[in-house]
Amino acid sequence: MAPPVEISGAAAEAAAAVEEGAVVEEAEAAVEEAAAAAAAAEEVAATAADKGGGGDVAVRGDRPISTVLIVIAMQTEALPLVNKFRLTEDTGQSLFPKGVPWVRYHGKYKDLYINLVWPGKDSVLGVDSVGTVSASLVTYASVQAFKPDLIINAGTAGGFKAKGACVGDVYIASDVAFHDRRIPIPVFDLYGIGARPTFSTPNLLKELNLKLGKLSTGDSLDMSPQDEAAIQANDATIKDMEGAAVAYVANLLSVPAIFIKAVTDIVDGEKPTAEEFLQNLIAVTAALDHAVTKVIDFVSGKFLSDL
């Protein structure tokens, strides 16, 4: 066996330096690679946003929209669309939890598979299950069950004449927020308001010539002085009882959502809100039906980035 080779101190130091240099070079290369990957990811995200991604939800890939979820609060608002799109009600085993009153209609229309859901009737009082709680629950369960590419929350709303709204106007919501979740603690106050932009649809707006306005949501049909101050702070043109709740769930589950609202009553007008709402509900529902049909026709065969 050959005797071990002795390495001088200078040689050992040189070898260590070479080894250390190689490690540093490898580390620097890894850092550069990570930076390049991050830059590429940012570029992809920016490109997706430029192609129509808006609000809190990015465009999901480059593929046609195939499944749409329509969330509606009232049966009166839902049935014209059920008839228009020739949807079938679930009568057998439901994908929803046992015992809930939620109703699903579904079917194929052009290139789209449509699931229309409404929260059903209250089991005790027999009225439509309106409001944020039912809307958020049925939206969450429907997204989990049907995996939609797009959510459409359609319904009636109150409008403000001070912002230019008239009975029968149909709006696409540009932003949503709550006006009755008051938490006067720093940061919690912003959480309570829950303001967020909606999914951007510039081509749809231009093609269909719909109005654009901010939507404020609360669980009361009337408007208290505190609600009014919050709605004004939200710069809202329309108010409803479901939109911001649907938007919260859509954002949570990363599904793009658009909001189509037809004005039944003028909140800052002379007539009592409940009276005007009931008086105009049927006629305005026809305007809503027409607008939603135009939106579905526009969406059919398109990519999210085309909206």
TrEMBL record:
SUPFAM superfamilies: Purine and uridine phosphorylases (SSF53167). InterPro entries: MTAN, Nucleoside_phosphorylase_d, Nucleoside_phosphorylase_sf. GO terms for molecular function: methylthioadenosine nucleosidase activity. Residues 68-296 form the Nucleoside phosphorylase domain. Gene3D superfamilies: Nucleoside phosphorylase domain. GO terms for biological process: L-methionine salvage from methylthioadenosine; nucleoside metabolic process. PANTHER family: 5'-METHYLTHIOADENOSINE NUCLEOSIDASE, 5'-METHYLTHIOADENOSINE/S-ADENOSYLHOMOCYSTEINE NUCLEOSIDASE 1. This is 5'-methylthioadenosine/S-adenosylhomocysteine nucleosidase 1. The gene is LOC109727586.
